[in-house]
TrEMBL record:
Residue stretches in coiled coil: none
Classification via PROSITE patterns: GGDEF, RESPONSE_REGULATORY
Domain spans labelled Response regulatory: 5-121
Keyword RNA-binding among UniProt keywords: no
A GO BP annotation: regulation of DNA-templated transcription
Lineage of the organism: Bacteria, Bacillati, Chloroflexota, Anaerolineae, Anaerolineales
GO molecular function, one term: phosphorelay response regulator activity
SMART domains linked to this entry: GGDEF, REC
Record domain GGDEF: where: 154-300
Name under which the protein is recorded: Two-component response regulator receiver protein
The organism of origin for this protein: Anaerolinea thermophila (strain DSM 14523 / JCM 11388 / NBRC 100420 / UNI-1)
Single GO cellular component term: cytosol
Amino acid sequence: MGKARLLIVEDDVDISNMLKIYFSSQGYDVETALRGSDALEKTRQNMPHLIVLDIMLPDINGYEVCRQLRTTTRTSHIPVIFLTQKDERSDRLQGLELGADDYITKPFDIDELRLRVQNAISRSERESLTDPQTGLPAGRMIEDQLRQVIRQPRGWAFLDVRINYFEPFKNVYGFIAGGDVLRFTSMLLGEVVDELGTQNDFVGHAGGDNFIIITAEDRAEAIKQRAKERFKEEVLTHYNFMDRQQGYILAPDEEGKIEPTPLMTLAVGVVSPATHYFADIREITELAAEERRKDAANER
């Protein structure tokens, strides 16, 4: 897996810098925010695996930041550890009622905070809540979202998104480069949904090169087209100059024979109650996968 991403939200610059240096030395990818509004924006731009959140911030307090994270579908799964000088029982209860995963008071033991961060991320991955590479909702959280939308008779759409020719790329460029492409894809899908979707839209990582989006029915086609267009153009930065110029890579096929293989694109299948009938959530994913395979065939 790639580095786990932490977002440190702390207005004391000395503490913020100290935590960034320490957790970076522990192998984490660390971003910082001095204000609550900055934290919400950075979370939307690049989904962290965990947020360490101070309560006393100069604009909106940590409680409000946590409330907005928990009431926004795309960020509701991110573990939050409150970091504060307050040690009153009522303050701890307020944070936990808002959905915080843990609570630690200043002055704190840095090793204790490290273990709490490590355990919260591990618990989230172990319970199939998030994908370890992208930090997006996975497994059980995707199933929960599907169970919610199937109860709605209309108005939603499900997008099955897969990266064409990802495995040949990973075979040629390596596992680390493959992980970079998955993280790039997760960020791109998030940006497209931010631009064209709604606050209640859901982006998940179903595993491997497969992502999903749940959005409003009337926004699905625009999201599909924008994601495909942007991916086709922006994924080129993951190839070397020669492969970009020739428009393909030389990769082994299933029999080990080296063959020209197209550059990566996205295939997207869209289903909704307006186009299909679903008896259960399994049928949503199966029918969407069928539509995605048709989309991939049209690209060839």
